[in-house]
Amino acid sequence: MRNRAGIILIHEGKLALIERHRQGRHYFAFPGGGVDNEETDEQAAVREAEEELGIRVKIVQKAATILRDGRRDQVYFVVQWVDGEFGTGTGEEYGEVDPNHGTYQPLWMPLKEVLEKNVIPRGLAELTVRSHREGWGESAIIHEEYK
To answer: Is 111 helix (H, G, I), strand (E, B) or coil?
Structure first.
């Protein structure tokens, strides 16, 4: 399984997320995806933002590394919106609806609602809300269990 890279984009007090309906589950995920061969984590995060959200972003800082089963699985970056129209992603996930992959819907969630909803990874949601309020420190290590 390849590593993943994603973004944390906050704009006007709202967090960019992907609403997912998949295999009977309803949740909200941070935009991101797999890191391709010959691609850095930063390049993958920027590419995924464009594919999933339809926007170009600039990396501000590394925010967190998610460890699952004791190994690095995901890295997330705080980003700044550079240009593009939010919600116009053209990634392969927006093709025909595949029951195995479910639905993808980009949306803006007010930060005050993030901890009330099923936003995953949960540790990253908590870090995002806290850091937006208190300031982003050094990159955090978050341990998550597979569910």
So the answer is: helix
For residue 39, count CB atoms less than 10 angstroms from its CB and return exposed for 0-12, middle for 13-18, buried for 19 or more. middle
pLDDT in tens, the chain (147 residues): 678 999 999 999 999 999 998 888 999 999 999 999 999 999 999 999 999 999 999 999 999 999 877 677 899 999 999 999 999 888 776 555 566 667 889 999 999 999 999 999 999 999 999 999 999 988 888 887 654
CB 115 within 8 A of CB 89: no
Binning the chain into helix, strand and coil, the percentages to the nearest 5 are 25, 45, 30
**CATH for 4-144, among 3.90.190.20, 3.90.79.10, 2.40.50.140, 3.40.50.1580?**
3.90.79.10
Tokens at 48, concatenated: 């995924």
